[in-house]
Amino acid sequence: MNRRPVLPMLAILMAVGLAGCASNQNLPPTNGTTWQPPHNATPEDAATADRLWQVFERYEGTPYRYGGASANGFDCSGFIATAFDEALGRQLPRTTSQMLASGDVVGRDQLRAGDLVFFRIKGKDQHAGIYMGGDSFIHSSTSIGVTRSSLNGYYWRDRFSQARRFD
To answer: What confidence tens digit (pLDDT) does each residue in 55-84 have?
Structure first.
């Protein structure tokens, strides 16, 4: 039996598999750079985004921890609840499913800074982040912790399911 054709195929499968592990399409680290709201943001949206951005900078890189809601580690809903509390003085539900059952549904074309964006992974809505304007959102990723990602990144764009606004 000749095993040579198996080796190139195995190498291709490994490369595809490794690429999948890095599929969260995070934007470059901020490294202290000043964040700017999108040019078409209202003053209120810009102020909301700026306050949320300050919280994001404080926690950027904090590791993911299931059930976490502190600087020791955040899950996605723990980061959102903490960011809203610290930046905006608002209390949000603690879990993703509770957040999905609250707030007002918003169309993707109507997103404003501070809206929550939800993603369907493995058949159910189980990840969320905070929309920041343009096509970026901040969240706690299972692979790298608190980070900023692109809604249009190849991992996220087909997983977006809905958005909610908490005014």
So the answer is: 999 999 999 999 999 999 999 999 999 999
Rounding to the nearest 10 degrees, give the CA dihedral for residues 138, 143, 145, 146: -10
Residue 74: count other Cβ atoms within 10 Å of its Cβ: 27
Q: Considering the candidates 24, 55, 127, 132, report the single residue annotated as catalytic.
A: 127
Active site residue 139: yes
Please identify which of the residues 51, 139, 148, 164 carries the catalytic annotation: 139
76 labelled catalytic: yes
Spell out the residues 6+ positions from residue 46 whose beta carbon is closer than 8 angstroms to its own.
37, 113
Residue from 41, 52, 55, 76 carrying the catalytic annotation: 76
pTM of the model: 0.80
- Catalytic residue check, 127: yes
Question: Cα(147)–Cα(23) distance, rounded to whole angstroms?
Answer: 14
Sheet of 116-121: strands edge to edge?
104-106, 160-165, 116-121, 124-133, 136-141, 145-150
Q: Which domains does the chain have, with CATH numbers?
A: 6-165 (3.90.1720.10)
